[in-house]
Design a protein that fits this description.
- The structure is a homodimer.
- Chain A folds into two domains: 61 residues; 210 residues, Rossmann fold.
- The two termini of chain A are 16 Å apart.
- The first copy, chain A, contains twelve helices and seven strands.
- The longest helix of chain A is centred in the N-terminal third of the chain and has 23 residues.
- At the A-B interface, helix 1 and helix 2 of A face helix 1 and helix 2 of B.
Amino acid sequence: MKTFLDCYPCFVRQALEAARMAGADEQGQRRLLGLVMGELREIPLDMTPPEMAGRIHRLVRQELGDGDPYREAKQTSTQQALALYPRLRALVDGSGEPMDRAVRLAIAGNIIDRGMDLDYDLWETVERVLAQPFAVDDGAALRAALSGAQEVLYLADNAGETVFDRVLIETLDVPVRYAVKGGPILNDATLEDAVAAGVDRVAALVSTGSNAPGTILSDCSAAFRRVFDQAELIIAKGQANYETLSEAGPRLFFLLQAKCPVIARDVGAGVPVGSIVLKQG
Amino acid sequence: MKTFLDCYPCFVRQALEAARMAGADEQGQRRLLGLVMGELREIPLDMTPPEMAGRIHRLVRQELGDGDPYREAKQTSTQQALALYPRLRALVDGSGEPMDRAVRLAIAGNIIDRGMDLDYDLWETVERVLAQPFAVDDGAALRAALSGAQEVLYLADNAGETVFDRVLIETLDVPVRYAVKGGPILNDATLEDAVAAGVDRVAALVSTGSNAPGTILSDCSAAFRRVFDQAELIIAKGQANYETLSEAGPRLFFLLQAKCPVIARDVGAGVPVGSIVLKQG
């Protein structure tokens, strides 16, 4: 992406947040920001934002001596989302169009994102996304693809959002493989986070083998790349999966909220920040 | 302030925005970000955010070879605010409490701030601020101080906001000296910007002699420091004036919107971002 300079302030903010979550004092926070800004000065220009984020957060974890600074934040998000689970289920079960509603809920859950500087109420977000028109709506193509599919590969995004994904998976009438990160990166869901959300009860869990945001295939395990290559239908959640796979073809359907101008611009001309997107690759 | 690490992402974002406004290409933008991040690594820990911003933006202007990257943005803001001027006047003239309303309008105008990453509609902001309760309201003390004052020193903040200040100045029944920056810094109002807003018709204009944000007295001219020292009543607009003068005593009344968590926290415990504030020093 040509626009990654827009991501620099976000990386600096993320590093500061991670340092605080790991309990670093002010001097430690400052040292980490210094290292991250040094890295941002040196980093090759041709990296995508998720590749850069992967590299930055490896540095953050290493410098902080904390393999998962977002652990508690992820647990909290999962608990908050699980508390809503009965209401989410009721929304789907009480609907004449359960698929449409479950897709919207999965997109609503995408608001949970520690990579962004967002201030939101989770239930208000649910209500907003249920009522909001799509900025891009390839829902008809998704329904057609689902009706013929033997299996769905579902690329997870963040912890907590996993609970919303679970509701969608429960609504799909087809077996799902749910792909999570191979190790901690930001608040992205790992195997542990998926299990905490109960996704293991409704889908087969698979690790991408990578701990970069999104799905950088060259960074994934050979085993995951085989799963990916053979998948007939792929649901990909969130901005980072869109950033890394938007050119990967029509097997992919991206479900996300456009939470920053860089992504909104890339999704389509005139797409405003805050839009909900269901886009075929 | 102990919390200035929170300001680092903002400085990086400001530098990128300034580079783009000055027409720098991507390579130039990146070079500037590199320099700014280098400066942020070296900068002494005991500087206040406005001092840091002053230093950062001096570097920005120097590197870009543009003495005022925000020139056009300031002109646009002033034009947009002037277009609202008749409606602002009508709001005050039609009110049973013209002073209260003019104070609120001056605070509404404080939304115009290129230092922050804000997405707002100017008229919606006016309507919000007219209806919103104050998070801190020392309005009674301000009215008492005004009733006995011979003159008011009014510390300006941003271009465009100047038009809203003008409406308040027109409503005050006392002569006003309106203090603007000595040179370009962000979108802060200079002499030229105050004249474009017509403030020269309703107040005596005076330069602080400094081109740092806020009012850093040690960086101001000796002439301005005399004006400041002798002032009996000072109205200080915006966050940066609050950051630099919040300890300067009860002659000062701060009118602002709390647009970031660092300021909101400092204004008072539990004061949320988005609050309107009328606070005596």
